[in-house]
Amino acid sequence: MTPYKDFTTRLKLLIGKNPHLITTTLSNVFTMRLIGNKTHGDLAEIAIAEFINQFMYDFKSVHVGKDLYRAKSHEEDIKIINEVTKVEFPVSLKAYGDGPLQLSTDKHSVMFPRLLAEKGDIVDKIKLQAIFNDPAFAVFNDINVLPLIYDEKKQKCNILVFDYEAARTKTARIAHEKKGKGRKHPVFRFYDKDGDYICEVRYGNAAANALQRGLWTHTRNALKYFDSVTDGWIGYSHNHVLVKLFSHALISTSAGHEDALKRLKEDIEAQKKGSNLS
């Protein structure tokens, strides 16, 4: 079991025993969409890092921050340290709607050209294995993506972790599909032996927008290749008090913030006492 898999297994166990903790956190995160359509993504990184620090005693988390982006060796938003083994590993947070999900930006643009070199669809087992063993596809070995998926209309959310190992072992065909409905550029789509969709590599050279390239999947179309850390969808509600808190905090002094922080810490401690965190 990889360090990241061990972490998500422990997270799933914690949530199973204390669903109210993650429901509260995700409700607050998705409430941020009332402030701005993209605000929730950045604040989710801070929220999940703090969730780990407060409720997962065997783990510590550090928010990496956007200012370190150019120096990052991995796609990461937070760094997690296993306090028992002292192993550190990066995690990339994704807050997406229920649908297309980007797993890797492929910033060096190596995945699509590697597949293009095969000249068409790929079904030979030896060729498939060679592709997954190629450095261009290291994403299947060392990217830890934690997707926070939401359905805003139904106000429900899910933490869905893509199973890279299953995707790798179950891929039976990689199809080169050119322009299609709603798509300007070709893609390589991965399918299993039953013809079910797994993931895809999108077109795009190094100069292209990150959304035009990289490894993508689809949370509805590839559901069999996801593990739900929350054990399915959970309902959430908007916390309008939090929006009011933010608005007041932005025009308050640090002294006021200190007083508010004391009350918030007391509330967190009360949640811990009423939860099963063993």
Q: What sequence of helices (H) and strands (E) makes up the elements?
A: HHHEEEEHHHEEHEEEEEEHH
Q: State the separation between the terminal residues, measured CA to CA.
A: 21 Å
Count every helix, treating DSSP H or I runs of 4 or more residues as helices. Answer: 9
Count of individual domains: 1
Structural class: alpha+beta
Mind summarizing the main beta sheet?
7 strands, mixed
Strand content: 15-25%
| Rounded average pLDDT | 89
Spans of 5+ residues with little confidence (pLDDT < 50)?
A: none
Shape: elongated
Radius of gyration: 20 Å
Number of strands: 12
Question: Residue share in helices?
Answer: 25-40%
Offer a concise description of the structure.
36% of the residues lie in helices and 23% in strands. The protein has 278 residues and is α+β, with helices and mostly antiparallel strands. Strands 1, 2, 3, 5, 6, 11 and 12 form a seven-stranded mixed β-sheet that branches.
Structure, explained:
By secondary structure, this protein is α+β, with helices and mostly antiparallel strands. It has one domain (3-238). Helix content is 36%, strand content 23%. The protein has helices at residues 3-17, 19-31, 39-55, 111-116, 125-133, 139-142, 164-170, 240-249, 254-273, and strands at residues 59-63, 78-82, 88-97, 100-104, 145-151, 156-162, 173-177, 187-191, 197-202, 214-218, 226-228, 234-235. Strands 1, 2, 3, 5, 6, 11 and 12 form a 7-stranded mixed beta sheet that branches. The longest helix has 20 residues, at 254-273. It starts with a helix and ends in a 5-residue tail after the last helix. The mean pLDDT is 89.
